[in-house]
Amino acid sequence: MKILAVDTSSNVATIALMEDEKLIAEIVLNYKKTHSEKLMPMMEDLLNQCDVKPTEIDIFTASVGPGSFTGLRIGITTIKAMAQALNKPVVGVSTLEGLAFNLPYAEGLICPIIDAQRDVVYTALYRWEGTGLVEVMQQQVLSVEELINYLHTKDEKIIFIGDAVEKFNEILQEKLMDKASFPPNSVVFPRASSIAALARKSALKGQLMEAATMIPLYMRKSQAENQYDEKIKEKDVL
């Protein structure tokens, strides 16, 4: 089973090719968010280097969010287009679960945090049980303060991962002290290999979708939509 995976939910663009449990190749580009220009060339280069034709891919997968609205659209649209053209199935994978999967068999709670602007994060809680991740707190949008208050109720070590770690590192350490843990920077950001591995688990359970049914998980309105709503409210007041 060959799986082609993409994650463009953040500033990082990452793609991976996996065959069964073997990671064949992975590219991680953490330099400017120009996914619309770089994703396809990255994908073509990866397949060429591995001597794999698009027709040989059995499953296409992408992180579906939450994350950057524009980034998610680019990654999902690319994967859907390829899958539809080749009549192949797709699997959508949560960005938050993908981040947690970067830390295999970690002890304690894994708390991915993705910056949603205005001191708000997309977050969830996971724990490794056996060979799988278990969701301890469902995906949601919380202010950093709300998240910290909730984590105070937990008596376990909490490992933070995701693009909001750098932004909120100081307050997390100050409020949670020794309970907060931060892994190396190399695993903090999305990895397409994690998306591929999770997609494989879903595929083995028969959890496949037609390309047309894959949609992004936004969880909140975009900044442009919020600004539009504010303008409408102002007009109503006038």
In short:
By secondary structure, this protein is an alpha/beta fold.
How would you portray this structure in words?
The chain is an alpha/beta fold and 238 residues long. The protein has two domains: 2-96 and 190-223, ATPase, nucleotide binding domain (Nucleotidyltransferase, domain 5, 2-Layer Sandwich), CATH 3.30.420; 104-187, Nucleotidyltransferase, domain 5. It contains seven helices and ten strands. Strands 3-2-1-4-5 form a five-stranded mixed β-sheet, with helices on both faces. Helix 1 (35-49) packs across helix 2 (69-86). Mean pLDDT is 92; it is low at 222-235.
Please give the structural blueprint.
Layout: E1 2-7, E2 13-19, E3 22-29, H1 35-49, E4 59-65, H2 69-86, E5 90-94, H3 95-100, E6 109-115, E7 120-129, E8 132-143, H4 144-151, E9 158-161, H5 165-176, E10 180-181, H6 192-204, H7 223-237
Parallel strand pairs: 1-4, 4-5, 6-9, 9-10
Antiparallel strand pairs: 1-2, 2-3, 6-7, 7-8
